Amino acid sequence: MIIKCSVKYYGIISDIVQMDTDVAEFNSFVPTLNDVKLVLEKAYPDIKEVDYLFAVNHKLVSDLTLELKQNDEIALLPAFSGG
């Protein structure tokens, strides 16, 4: 079984990966948010230098062991501050 999730990049992260959206595909296992993080940081090492948060289906998520499901939407949100 192939699990596909959409991935959206924002701010400096979209500059690093040079795209706004992508599709992550995982074969033969249930991926976690940490699996996505490892794949992205291997493909784009500069992401490691950025503080960012994950959102899954429009909700901030800090638990990297969260198991992803077919058609989940993952967003990488760079840290921001307001004044």
From TrEMBL:
Q: What is this protein called?
A: MoaD/ThiS family protein
Q: Which residues form the signal peptide?
A: none
The record's section on InterPro entries has: Beta-grasp_dom_sf, Mopterin_synth/thiamin_S_b, ThiS/MoaD-like
Q: Which domain of life is it from?
A: Bacteria
The record's Pfam families line, in alphabetical order, gives:
ThiS (PF02597)
Q: Which organism is it from?
A: Flavobacterium silvisoli
Gene3D superfamilies registered for this protein in UniProt: 3.10.20.30
What taxonomic classification does the UniProt entry list for its organism? Answer: Bacteria, Pseudomonadati, Bacteroidota, Flavobacteriia, Flavobacteriales
